[in-house]
Specification:
Chains A, B: It is found in: Cytoplasm. Chains A, B: Keywords: ATP-binding, Cytoplasm, Ligase, Nucleotide-binding, Purine biosynthesis. Two copies of one chain form a homodimer. The first copy, chain A, is an alpha+beta fold. Chain A has one domain (about 1-80): Mth169, Chain: A. Chain A has two helices and three strands, in the order βαβαβ. The longest helix of chain A is centred in the C-terminal third of the chain and has 16 residues, at about 50-65. The radius of gyration of chain A is 16 Å and the shape is elongated. The mean pLDDT of chain A is about 95. β2 (about 35-45) of chain A pairs antiparallel with β2 (about 35-45) of chain B, so a sheet runs across the interface.
Chain lengths: ~80, ~80
């Protein structure tokens, strides 16, 4: 069993309306000094097998095919 | 300027239909051996100031008030 975490975030320069809305909401709640908020996704996976190298390669394929829109998003993979 | 990352994930035992759907989709794409997928949110923030302790306290308040539903979600805060 392998545990892995994938974090998908917007590339720099890509507009993040959701992040902007959250930043605004934080301001309305009285949290000043928040310059920027950018929201992304995190996936925690449990996978069969124990070959970390092979698993990392498969996780990358999963990102390329489904979990990330690589035109506008970056992804990082970390394996426990 | 302080940079921080907040990761919000579902508590153990809380059903994650989105994660289940993603796991199913990965299976249809030919990725077998994926036992579990759980999806969460990540927030990257840039904040004024340089007092990390005070900032961590404010970030925790932000989570409690807006960024996380603490009934069903956990959050972790990491400051660069």
């Amino acid at each position: 069993m392998i545990k892995a975490r994938i974090v998908v975030t917007l590339k720099n320069g890509v507009l993040d309306p959701q992040g902007k809305a959250i930043g605004g909401a934080l301001g309305h709640l009285g949290f000043d000094g928040v310059d920027e908020v950018r929201q992304g996704k995190v996936f925690d996976l449990q996978l069969d097998g124990d070959d970390k190298t092979a698993t990392e390669k498969r996780l990358s394929e999963m990102c390329e095919k489904l979990l990330a829109n690589t035109v506008i998003e970056n992804y990082t993979i970390s394996i426990d």
